[in-house]
Amino acid sequence: MALSKKIGIDLGTTSILVYLPKRGIIINEPSVVAISRIDKTVLAVGKEAKDMLGRTPDTIIAHRPLKDGVIADYRTTEAMLRYFINKAMGGMRLFRPEVMIAVPGGITSTERRAVIDATLSAGARSAYIIKQPLVAAIGANIPIGSPSGHMIVEMGGGTTEIAVIALGGIVASDSVRIGGVKFDKAIIEHIRRKYNLAIGERTAEDVKISVGSALYLENRLTMDVKGRDMMSGLPKTVEVSSDDVTEAIQPLLEGILNAMKEVLNQTPPELSADVMDKGIVISGGTSQLRNLDRLFAEATGVPTYVAEEPQMAVARGTGIALDNLDAYKRSVFSE
Question: How far apart, in whole angstroms, are the C-alpha atoms of residue 282 and residue 313?
Answer without folding.
Answer: 10
